TrEMBL record:
Cofactor(s) demanded: a metal cation
PROSITE patterns attached to this UniProt entry: ACT (PS51671), HOMOSER_DHGENASE (PS01042)
Catalytic activity from the UniProt record: L-homoserine + NADP(+) = L-aspartate 4-semialdehyde + NADPH + H(+); L-homoserine + NAD(+) = L-aspartate 4-semialdehyde + NADH + H(+); L-aspartate + ATP = 4-phospho-L-aspartate + ADP
GO molecular function, one term: NADP binding
BP-aspect Gene Ontology terms: homoserine biosynthetic process; lysine biosynthetic process via diaminopimelate; methionine biosynthetic process; threonine biosynthetic process
Pathway: Amino-acid biosynthesis; L-methionine biosynthesis via de novo pathway; L-homoserine from L-aspartate: step 3/3; Amino-acid biosynthesis; L-threonine biosynthesis; L-threonine from L-aspartate: step 1/5; Amino-acid biosynthesis; L-methionine biosynthesis via de novo pathway; L-homoserine from L-aspartate: step 1/3; Amino-acid biosynthesis; L-lysine biosynthesis via DAP pathway; (S)-tetrahydrodipicolinate from L-aspartate: step 1/4
Protein name as catalogued: Bifunctional aspartate kinase/homoserine dehydrogenase I
Subunit structure: Homotetramer.
Pfam families named in the record: AA_kinase, ACT_9, Homoserine_dh, NAD_binding_3
Entry keywords, A to Z: Amino-acid biosynthesis, ATP-binding, Kinase, Lysine biosynthesis, Metal-binding, Methionine biosynthesis, Multifunctional enzyme, NAD, NADP, Nucleotide-binding, Oxidoreductase, Sodium, Threonine biosynthesis, Transferase
Amino acid sequence: MKILKFGGRSLANGKGLDTVLNIVEQKISQGEDITLVVSARGNTTDDLLEILEKAALGESYIPFLENFKEYQRAYSLDFPQEFALLEKLFEGVSLLGDYSNKIKDQILAQGEIISAKLITHLLENRKIRSVFVDSRELLISDDHFGNAQVKENISEQRTQNFFSRLPKGTVAVITGFIASTEKGETTTLGRNGSNYSAALFANFLNAEELQNFTHVNGIYTANPDWVAEAEIIRHLSYQEANELANFGATILHAKTIIPLIAKNIPLRILNTFNANDAGTLIHSQVSEEGIRSLSVLEGNALIILEGRGLLGKVGVDARIFKALAHRNISVSIISQGSSERGIGFLVSNQDAELAKTALEEEFESDFYTKDVSEVSIVKNVGVISIVGQDMATFHKPYNALIRNQVIPLLINNAVTGNNVSVVVHNHQLQKALNVIHGEIFSISKRVNLVIFGRGTVGGTLIKQLFEAKDDILTRKNISLRIVAVANSNKVLLNPKGVTENEYESFEKLSTPYTLEDLITFTKKHHLENLIAVDATASKTFIENYIQLIENGFDLVSANKIANTVSYGFYKKLRKVLKNNQKQYLYETNVGAGLPLIDTIKLLHLSGENITRIKGIFSGTLSYLFNNFSDSDVPFSEVLRTAIDNGYTEPDPREDLCGNDVGRKLLILARELDLENEFEQISVQNLIPKHLQEGTVEDFLARLNEFDDEYRKIKEQQAPNHVLRYIGDLHGDLKSTETSKLDVKLVSVPKDSALGQVKGADSIFEIYTESYGNNPIVIQGAGAGAAVTARGIFGDILRLIERGS
Ligand code: ASP
Ligand code: MG
């Protein structure tokens, strides 16, 4: 025989109840031998509790009671007896202004009785022979009203007795949740207790299986309402299920598993609304790899008792728990430092004040002697329990939490079993859950990108991200989402990731914003693993960097400003990064996508002594001088072609003045811990003096005024030499004072490394002590939107990999 237990939500009016009846009918027609255990329907138990509270407070409860009746009568069956009893009880409570747990149990029991009676009636309507069974006749309990303990021997006897007399082929529809004392008083078995009832009946009747029909597909790695990536767990051992139940998996009542273990009865968690799904099977087999799941308990308060005088004192803990037990306050997680300076533990939010008072009373004299300094409450905390987590690998989820600015208030690992519980503020609970889940299941790790700037580089990056997204998900298990795209005044947001279609309608869908708005948005949606990308050309955007870092963002930037303003800011930024354990990558600052900065960083970090860095840093100027040197045309003509092809800035003087090369050189110098300022760089300006001021139009009209000077320079070269505009970091690089930063036009042999550069390529020669006269050479396309965007993309991936 199989026991089928149906929960409240499955039995709600309409779709739920209809589906349940169909399931039962189908099983019967297939010749299955089944017994039903049912909960109260829909929200019945909560509704009864609410009416009870109203009655006790002397509020008008009658309309609510009428609603309640109407709901129960929806299938044209009346319940005069139960309704009359409820009316009488509520009236009494209303008159007294109070109620006992005994009265409460009597009231709540009606929900299950009505439910079982209705289902019996509806099955009969479908010509299924069935009988209503009031479990108070079968389950005998103690008189701990509200959470009664079933007396198993006598209950087993009664149950077996009853069933031995039950005609074959009759379906018993048993009330869950309720029992009675030996004196015949009604008791209940605790919230969600129908699961426990069902397990007991399965045990007493030697059922072959207990099927628990719920409104979810089974037990998940985490609550799927909270964690989109949660996956169903197909098999669980009793042991594992029990741990989950203890840690708040509400579909498992904490006591459910025990009666099943005794007789080795499998428990299947099924979804009424998706009955074809195999659900989760809980049985005696232990899976090899062990199961891991996250469960959550909300609504707790953390109580902290502090005092330096507690050190070495005997009996402090005993006094704490005695004082709490005295007030009937249950304590869940406890943590005490070995220094015994304080102890922290969790109680329910409702018990928090009472717990504080209890401790203040108990330790009154210790306050006087200053042995105890404070009892404080941190309300609204939640517990995430990682069931199946051993301490040896806990650093991974822990680090991920810290990276995401979730600082656990308390951590506790169970002495037996592999469980770690982490207490966090309620408002961080969902984010924390997702972070831990992503980390330990590596189903996919969500990374949330905020992209500032949608010019050529930003736009290209977004396009590349859309294209590569799926591939990165399958290959790297990383789900990259662009949750915000912003230009200087408007932003397009989507917490699930901006879609390509949305992005195409940026103008229409975007709204004005401030940085605060954006940060609030990320907090509201509990977005983890945040990366801000600065793809702007803005001189002022760096003012936002620090705020972004402090609000949990890692940074990737193609913008050189942050690294080239004062050394003071440079240092400060790095300090804030360190304090917040955040990263800042900017590989594209120099040589676009070429792996230059990373290489220099690694060399420097590994202790390799870099003695000189020299090269062609600007793609634009590389193009100009490569072509000018190779051909017989005036300088202005080459310049004109460069302008027409879009190789230069809108005002070409920004390239020709050399400052951009200067900035790149400065960034490399600072990588070597040199503290130079921009002003210390000697930069040769390529623009003739008289053209340096004035409008762009005017400048563009007078390009041929470059020609004389550059013809002379070209002619004065030694044979087989070519012109190159280079950045050169040299001198003694051990200190800022002795280092030299030069940006200048030079003439080099045609067959040298610099002389051989073609097109608009960049080249960087890194000289180090071990490599001697043979520098490490990094060469390639050092400019352009596509390679720069690709470089930013690389930084994003690098950042994610380093983070984990
Ligand atoms: N009806 C009770 C409750 O809601 C028992 C149950 O559903 O298992 O707690
Ligand atoms: Mg229920």
